[in-house]
Amino acid sequence: MRKIVCVLIVSSKGDLLMRREADGRIAAFGGLREEGDAPVRAAVRVLGEETGLDVRAEDLEFLGAYASDAADMQVFIVAGVDSDRVHAYGDEESLCKVHRSDDFEDIGLTAMARKYVIDYFKKHKRA
Q1: pLDDT, tens only, 53-62
Q2: pLDDT (tens digit, 9 = 90+) per residue, 19-31?
Q3: Which H helix or E strand runs over 8?
Q4: CA distance 84 to 126
């Protein structure tokens, strides 16, 4: 089973900054954990690779663990980020802002992303 880390980036204005994939789906920035990598260390590395953000482990808040048939996922939050500092580096990806008032069914969230985005809004009383 694949071990994945994802990071929800919260802008200084309170928007979730996520990536829109070429097929239109929206997901958090993330990637595979390397062998022996602690989840938080992998999250710091992946965030730098995928967005150019330089964060420390102390900057991350653990949101939760999520599992599917294909993967085990650890999701973290980094808050207070200036949205101008975030770039989507994937070849066919772009930056997407998710607001608390969005209808999760209509914005193209992946099934797993829908779970952790809803959990984020519940935990931070923005649902």
Answers
A1: 999 999 999 9
A2: 888 888 888 899 9
A3: strand 2-11
A4: 23
The vertex-101 CA angle with 122 and 62, nearest 5°, equals 30
* Residue pair 30/112 in contact by the 8 Å Cβ criterion: no
Reduce the DSSP state of residue 67 to 3 states and report it: strand
Distance between CA 64 and CA 56 in Å, rounded? 18
Q: Could you tell me the domains of the chain?
A: 2-123 (3.90.79.10)
Q: Please give the Cα distance from 97 to 107 (Å, whole number).
A: 10
Say what the alpha-carbon torsion angle 77, 78, 80, 83 is, to the nearest 10 degrees. Answer: -100
pTM metric for this prediction: 0.87
CA distance 93 to 87: 10
